[in-house]
Structure formats: structure tokens, C-alpha cells
Amino acid sequence: MEKQKRREKEIQILKEADGLRAKEEEFRLKEQQEIEELKELKKKEQDHKRAEEKLRLEEEEQKTKDVEEQKIIENKIEEEKRINEENERIKEWERNFDEAQEKKEKELLEKFNNEKIENEK
After folding, report:
1. The model scores a pTM over 0.90
2. 96-119 per-residue burial string, b: 16 or more CB within 10 A, e: under 16
3. What is the pLDDT of residues 102-120, one digit of tens each?
């Protein structure tokens, strides 16, 4: 009888040990699953950071393009202004030249007419 009690106790201990092993295996699987979930979260976070960095770089690139385009527009405006000013100076010079030529022509005509009148006298 005592052998049977011991045997039952040993069986009980073995069952408890099997139960502990099963719980240990369950905890190990849960731990493995949590590790995998953490790895997945870390990967998602890294992907998110990469996406944010890519977006930031694209925004900086767009800002740089916008600044360059604005400079090009400003340079075109400055060039047009310079050309208009130069054209205005040329027109002013032409007007002055025409006025000077007209004045010289009038002086020559007056001189010619005065000489003609003197010659007729």
C-alpha cells in the first residue's frame, strides 16, 4: 500500500512536472510571440521613420526648386526691366539726335538763305 501511495505520489509529481513543463513551454511560446510582435513593431517604426525622412527630403527638394524658380522669375523680370530701360535710353538718344540734326538743318538752311539773299543783293 505504501508503495502504491509512493507510486501515486510519484505519478502526481510527474504530472505536476509535466504541467510545469507545459506551462513553461506556453510561456516560452508567448515570449517568442511577444518578441516577434516587438520586432514587427520595430520594423514598422523604422519604415515609418524612413517614410517621414523621404517625405522631408522631398519637401526640401520642392522648396529648393521653388526658390530656384523664383530666382529665375526675378532674373527674367530684372532682365526685362534692364532691356526696357536700355530701349528707353536708345529712344531718348534717337530723339536728341533727330532734334540736333533738325537744328543743324535749320541752321544750314538759314545760312544758305542768308547767303542767297546776300548774293542777290
Report:
1. no
2. eeeeeeeeeeeeeeeeeeeeeeee
3. 999 999 989 888 887 777 7
